[in-house]
Specification:
single chain, alpha/beta, Alkaline Phosphatase, subunit A, eight-stranded mixed beta sheet, three-stranded mixed beta sheet, globular
C-alpha cells in the first residue's frame, strides 16, 4: 500500500553510476509499499476508448450480508427460510426490498439489483471468496481458510485500472479506506498481486483519537521543502541524460514510474483537501450517519476492543462521504471496506436478525442512500458507478443459533449511477434464494462490466511475472444494466 516518506539525507555521489544511484534509492527517497519499485511492463498505453464513467466506488461488506433479508426477500417461503423481516415497496415500481432498508428503498429508482450473483467455484471461506469478488478471479490456492498477499494473487480492479491508465497524468488512480482488511495478513484481493507494488492503492487510514483520516507517510521530513525535492528531481533527470549506458529495462522503467508517482502525490493538494472531512458541514455529515451515538466502524456486537468502541463514533457513514470527496478530487477507483475482519458483524452465524436490525443495516442504509442522493445532487451520479456487495450471501435455511451461514451459490449486488437503468432487477434466484434461476452472474462478469464502463476492453491482456497472459476479466459485460 502507499507509504510515502522523503527523508532529507545526503549521499556522496562521487563515482556513482546511474544503476547504483537508482538502486541506492536516490539520496534517501524511501518508497516503501506502493512506491517501492518492482518490475513493470512497458510504460503508458493510455485509455483505449471513451469512458462511460469517470469513477467507481466499490463498497465491500466484508463477512457476507444476508441477501434473503435485504435485497432478495422470499415472503412466500417457509418461515425457516423467509425469516423475521418483511419486505417493503420502493421508489421503483414492483421492486421490493427488506423493511430495514427504508432509505435505500427511496432511491431504488436510481439503482439496479443483481439477484443472481454466484461464485464460479464453491468458495465458503471469507478470504478466497473476497479475492474472487474483488478481482473477478478464483485464487490459485482455492478455498483455503486464510489467503494473504502473494505473488499468485490476481490484481484488484483498482490495480488493473492503475496499470492500464499508467500513461495518464493522474495524482491517484486507486485508493482504499478506512483500513487494510485483516491487517497483518492482509486479505488478498486488496492488492495489485502479480502486477507489482507500483500499482498498489493509496491506503487511507482512520485516526480514532481525532476521528480523522490520514495517509501514513504522506509528508515531507522536517527541513525538507518542495523546492529541495524539485532540485533532487532535476538532478536525477540530469544523471539519466548523462549516463554513458542508459538503462531501459522494465525494472528501471518501474523505478522511474514509482518516483514520478511519489513526486506527483506529495505535491498534490487535492488529495490532502479531500481527506479533510471537517470541511463538510454538520448537516452533510449527519446525513451520512455521523453522530455522537452508534458503534465503531471496527467492531460490532461482541467486539473485544472496548476502548476503540468507546472512542470511535459511527464513522461508517463518513467513509462513504470521504469516497465522494475523493471522486470530486479526481480519484477514479475507490474501495470502501465496511468492517475489518471476519467473524464479526456481517458474518451473522448467530442472531442474524438482531445484528442486522440493531447494528448493521441502519448505518449501511443511511450511508448508501446518502451517497447516491449526494452524487445525484452534485451532478456526479451519471459518471460515477456505485457497486455494493459482500463476498457471498447467507444460507437460505436459518440455523439452530438463529443465524445464517456462508452461501456462495447465490447472492445480491446493488449498483447505482454510471448509466444504470434505475429500478432494474437483473437475474433472479429460485423460490428459496438458494441458486440463480435466470441470468446467473459471476464476479468475472462484474469485473468485465466495471472495466467496460471505464472504456477498457475486458479481452485485453495483462501479464504475470512468468509472461503468461491474462484477460482483464474472464466474464462478459452486463450491458443490459445500462440504458
Amino acid at each position: 500500500m502507499s507509504q510515502l516518506r522523503i527523508n532529507d539525507s545526503h549521499c556522496n555521489c562521487g563515482g556513482l553510476t546511474r544503476r547504483s544511484f537508482v538502486q541506492a534509492g536516490f539520496v534517501g527517497l524511501n518508497l516503501a509499499g506502493l512506491l517501492k519499485a518492482q518490475a513493470a511492463q512497458e510504460i503508458g498505453r493510455g485509455r483505449q476508448r471513451r469512458s462511460a464513467i469517470n469513477s467507481c466506488i466499490l463498497i465491500f461488506y466484508y463477512g457476507g450480508p444476508s441477501h434473503i433479508d435485504t435485497f432478495d426477500m422470499k415472503p412466500n417461503a417457509p418461515v425457516e427460510i423467509r425469516g423475521e423481516f418483511k419486505s417493503i415497496a420502493t421508489a421503483a415500481p414492483s421492486v421490493h426490498i427488506g423493511e430495514h432498508l427504508p432509505m435505500t428503498a427511496k432511491v431504488m429508482n436510481k439503482a439496479a439489483l443483481i439477484r443472481s450473483m454466484r461464485l464460479e467455484k464453491r468458495l465458503v471461506s471469507h478470504d478466497p471468496a473476497s479475492h474472487h469478488v474483488l478481482t473477478g478471479r478464483v485464487h490459485p490456492l482455492g478455498d483455503v481458510d486464510s489467503i494473504g498477499e502473494t505473488i499468485e494473487s490476481f490484481p484488484s480492479h483498482g490495480a488493473v485500472l492503475s496499470y492500464m491508465w499508467r500513461g495518464e497524468r493522474l495524482d491517484v488512480v486507486h485508493s482504499a479506506l478506512p483500513f487494510v482488511m485483516r491487517n497483518l495478513l492482509q486479505n488478498a484481493g486488496q492488492t495489485p498481486g502479480f502486477l507489482g507494488s507500483a500499482y498498489d492503492r493509496l491506503q487511507i487510514q482512520t485516526d480514532l483519537d481525532t476521528l480523522t483520516y490520514r495517509v501514513d507517510g504522506l509528508r515531507l521530513s522536517e527541513g525538507l521543502t518542495f523546492g529541495k525535492l524539485e532540485e533532487r528531481r532535476r538532478l536525477l533527470r540530469a544523471i539519466e541524460r548523462l549516463a554513458v549506458r542508459p538503462l531501459h529495462s522494465k525494472q528501471t522503467q518501474s523505478v522511474q514510474l514509482s518516483y514520478e508517482k511519489a513526486y506527483t502525490l506529495l505535491a498534490s493538494q487535492q488529495i490532502g483537501r479531500a481527506l479533510n472531512i471537517g470541511e463538510e458541514d454538520e448537516k452533510t455529515r449527519r446525513r451520512y450517519g455521523y453522530g455522537p451515538t452508534g458503534q465503531s466502524y471496527l467492531d460490532g456486537p461482541g467486539g473485544d476492543n472496548g476502548a476503540q468502541l468507546g472512542i470511535a463514533r459511527n464513522m461508517r457513514g463518513l467513509n462513504l462521504l470521504l469516497a465522494r470527496r475523493l471522486v470530486e478530487a479526481g480519484v477514479p477507483f475507490v474501495n470502501v471496506y465496511d468492517f475489518k475482519q471476519q467473524g464479526k458483524n456481517w458474518d451473522s452465524h448467530s442472531d442474524n436478525f438482531g445484528q442486522l436490525k440493531k447494528h448493521l443495516l441502519p448505518a449501511a442504509d443511511r450511508s448508501l442512500s446518502a451517497l447516491i442522493e449526494d452524487l445525484d445532487e452534485r451532478g456526479l451520479l451519471d459518471t460515477t458507478l456505485v457497486v455494493a456487495l459482500g463476498e457471498f450471501g447467507r444460507t437460505p435455511k436459518i440455523n439452530k443459533d438463529a443465524g445464517r451461514d456462508h452461501w456462495p451459490d447465490c447472492f445480491s449486488v446493488l449498483l447505482a449511477g454510471g448509466g444504470i437503468r434505475g429500478g432494474l432487477v437483473y437475474g433472479s434466484s429460485d423460490k428459496h434464494g438458494a441458486y440463480p434461476e435466470t441470468d446467473a452472474v459471476t464476479p468475472g462478469d462484474l469485473a468485465a462490466t466495471i472495466f467496460s464502463r471505464f472504456g477498457l476492453d475486458p479481452a485485453d491482456e495483462i501479464y504475470d511475472p512468468t509472461g503468461r497472459p491474462h484477460r482483464l476479466a474472464e466474464g462478459r459485460p452486463i450491458d443490459e444494466l445500462f440504458g
